[in-house]
Write a structure and sequence with these properties.
single chain; alpha/beta; Aspartate Aminotransferase, domain 2; Aspartate Aminotransferase, domain 1; 2 domains; seven-stranded mixed sheet; 11 helices; 13 strands
Length: about 375
């Protein structure tokens, strides 16, 4: 019998090997000539990524968390301002709000998609609400038409946390093009990942883009000298080497995304009727599958079965934001959907260089794990 197929959770080296022949010359040239910050490669990537997102401006920053915080600061949000945030997200979404001095107001999500809905947002808006951050979690986009309409009626800016949704769409419009700004992460594990930390803010608002760029560059403005500062800013810039790598990867992102979608479709077909719960996708959305998330009973046992079969899995996210120790003071009560999902979510391997055989192996192991559940013996008090 041949050995069982091993399946990594992702394979970043395969993507690096694919782009390296193209970027080797400009990468080494920049490295050896000492051009590490700014310059033409950064401007070129910003131009291409803005166009990719159907927006006018892109401002490269150091990471996705900074992209969110700089956007909030550029909008003038600060102490006492309340920002609505879905609790089912990575902590960075809420941390960016807290770091500005504003207050995150956590809301629950829909049980089918695990995303915020227009109804949830409308119910959460109060006279104290200053903004909302809509998260395109796992690569899936919620009802952006409805969410934008609610935000407009409330007179509050809508910010897109698109850290997991490069190329995601709602009604054929790209993630990042709906709100006043879209905030992306290029952490290496993202669909479009750098060789380290990186991020970007996209927007159609010229004044907002200029303010974000200034705040990210120690408060300098384009016309001022190096030592003139209009704002108290920070140091959060996209570096030249990352921009070179990202430009090459961006050219392949659509192909890689279509491969992700094809593998996700295969997962969905193979897992139909298996007993796992899959997050739903609206027909108007293009889910780009940063993560392939299923919900399973007895997750720890299922994950242990995967580990024994040499299949890597992940959990995103085991503790909702409102239950994280540094954020509990902002909680205002239970959020039952987030809390239940946190104990059930399991992320399966998904990356553009995996094989159909690996997808089938993951499904096989999951089916075996679910079938191995022992029934409770008669009289068991559990």
């Amino acid at each position: 019998m041949p050995p069982a197929i091993e399946v990594p959770f992702t394979d970043l080296s395969a993507m690096a090997h694919e782009v390296w022949p193209e970027i080797q010359e400009p990468y080494v040239e920049a490295l050896l000539q000492g051009r590490y910050v700014g310059g033409a490669p950064v401007a070129e990537f910003e131009r291409r990524f803005a166009r990719y997102c159907d927006t006018t401006h892109a401002v490269g920053v150091a990471n996705g968390t900074d992209a969110l915080q700089l956007t909030l600061q550029a909008l003038g949000l600060g102490a006492g301002d309340e920002v609505i945030v879905p609790a089912n997200t990575f902590i960075a979404t809420a941390a960016a709000v807290v770091r500005t001095g504003a207050v995150p107001v956590f809301v629950d999500v829909a049980p089918d998609t695990l995303l915020i809905t227009p109804e949830i947002l409308a119910a959460a808006v109060t006279p104290r609400t200053s903004a909302v951050i809509v998260v395109h979690l796992y690569g899936n986009m919620p009802d952006m038409d409805g969410l934008v309409a609610v935000a407009q009626r409330a007179g509050i800016p809508l910010i897109e946390d698109a850290a997991q949704a490069h190329g995601g769409e709602w009604r054929d419009r790209r993630a990042g093009s709906f709100g006043v700004a879209g905030c992306f992460s290029f952490y290496p594990g993202k669909n479009l990942g750098a060789f380290g930390d990186a991020g970007v803010v996209v927007t159609a608002d010229t004044a907002l883009a200029e303010r974000v760029r200034s705040l990210a560059n120690h408060g300098r403005t384009g016309d001022a000298s190096h030592y003139e500062h209009q704002f108290v800013g920070t140091n959060s810039r996209l570096d030249t080497l990352q921009a070179i790598a990202l430009t090459a990867k961006l050219a392949r992102n659509e192909e890689w995304t279509e491969t992700r979608i094809a593998f996700a479709d295969r997962y969905r077909k193979e897992l139909a009727g298996s007993g796992v719960r899959l997050t739903e996708v609206d027909p108007l959305a293009r889910h780009v599958y940063h993560l392939m998330v299923v919900r399973v009973p007895d997750r720890a046992r299922v994950q242990a079965a995967f580990a024994a079969a040499r299949v890597q899995t992940g959990v995103h996210y085991p503790v909702p934001c409102h239950l994280q120790p540094p954020l509990r003071r902002y909680g205002t009560g239970r959020l039952p959907v987030c809390e239940q999902a946190a104990g059930e979510q399991l992320s399966l391997p998904l990356f553009p260089h995996m094989s159909r055989a690996q997808v089938d192996r993951v499904c096989e192991v999951l089916d075996e794990a679910l079938s191995a559940r022992d029934p409770l013996p008669a009289g068991d008090p559990r």
